[in-house]
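S.,

Sequence below, as promised.
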Amino acid sequence: QVQLVESGGGLVQAGGSLRLSCTASGRTISRYNMGWFRQAPGEEREFVAGIRWSGGSTSYSDSVKGRFTISRDNAKNMAVLQMNSLKPEDTAVYYCAADRVMLRNRIEVVAQEYDYWGQGTQVTVSS
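The prediction came back faster than expected:
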């Protein structure tokens, strides 16, 4: 069983930056693709970014491409989402998640393909 805990959320002005961390315990995440999702009030949970288990490949939604960067440190059992040039529409609860399949080549973008989730961290961007 993998337990995930997100941290680093908060309130920031538009144009600012935040760095979200996802720390895993209970099992190594080194063999799992990791994803970041977000959910705004009244909206579906949406894919933001993903990184392959090896760290050699990443994927981003069009809305964050060029502004957000996902990375991982398997030695520290964690994943990070660096968010720059934040916009009010980035306001949401952000979740990290671990793929339900080990060593998958493709980075999945649907929440149903992720089995382990953190509790979420709130990101609020003011205009």
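The chain has a mean pLDDT of 97.

Coffee later?
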